[in-house]
Amino acid sequence: MTPAINTARKAKVPYTVHEYVHDAASESYGLEAAEKLSVAPERVFKTLVVKLDGRKLGVAVLPVSAMLSMKQIARAAGAKKAIMADKTEVERTTGYVLGGVSPLGQKKRLKTFIDQTATGFTSIYISAGRRGLEIELPPEQLAELTGATFTALVVHAGNSVTKAHSHRLQGGVEKAQD
Questions:
Q1: Sequential DSSP letters for 28-42
Q2: What is the mean pLDDT of each run of 10 residues along the chain (178 residues)?
Q3: Which residues are CB-neighbours of 123 under 8 A, at least 6 positions away?
């Protein structure tokens, strides 16, 4: 059992664990999960850790099919600037490896924001703390367990990726774009 699953279990919230065989050659952990679990990518959410104003870390939870707007996460967190956090700092702070970072059960509780599209589903899928393991739960329960706020986090169609300072997953590694 992972810290994420233990967090949901201890809180006695409704959840379901889904496991699949992770392919190390997969270029996108989240899209792989959606495909292998036969779930629409809009219901599978990735967890990204950002550095706000060069000092503190924050967590963005958004659909795997979307790109994070750095402007939106900074605004939501009351910061002037957001960039993707360093891999080593993410792993040290959360206790999870990239591709398996869960918003639940992190070593250090970080300020968390969930994309507002989550509220359109009765349940969403998030990493359960390791590659190949997802936990399905109501978005409101996720927000309660993490102290998260629902807000707009994604780049919308028609926005320039360059202007939006967005984020894309490439080759299994988080890459910031500007």
A1: -HHHHHHHHHT--GG
A2: 95 94 83 90 96 96 95 96 96 93 95 97 96 95 96 74 38 40
A3: 16, 43, 136, 137, 138, 139
